Amino acid sequence: MVKKTGKGSSSAEPSTITPPSSFLDGPLPKLIVFDLDYTLWPFWVDTHVTPPLKASPAHDSAKDRFGESFSFYHEVPHILHSLRERGIKVGAASRTSAPDLGREMLRLLHISDGDGKKRKAIDYFDHLEIYPGSKITHFTKLQKSTGLRFEEMLFFDDESRNRNVETLGVCMYLVRDGVSKKEINNGIKEWRKRHGHKAQTVETE
Question: Is 158 a catalytic residue?
Fold first, then answer.
């Protein structure tokens, strides 16, 4: 089934939104990895996007040759910012057949930090594995480059076929309509359950 492109949004600044609640109530993975298409943004970069790309003045979206506008899902910029604030390593594992275009999109879309300064989205990633092929390969390379155990990783992806990475020990969480704070919380809950971790009770004033 062919998916339709959707409109993303990154209108709010990271400083105006709270991090996912799971970042504050228990153990966290040392590496969180995201697929790109229909996980961080609502399109297939190798199918729906026709280069060259041109960033909007605010760098919160980019237009292709035909004037189509592309951006992240609404809460993605805040999530990436929050991950950096928490010191959690971030990776991308995409099997797109247009890896250069995927990287360019990450360079053109910018994210505001806590001081309101904008940085390229690609700078929020510690590790990039963007190329066609089985994601077993992507995660094998991620393990070698990070030195982390597969059990210390959490992967968000929209395609169930990529659950094959779980044979390595990676916990994968299937997203249905892009990454959001709710999906992050659910994924971390699943990772904790898988590895016997419990959430902590957080007292609020």
Answer: no
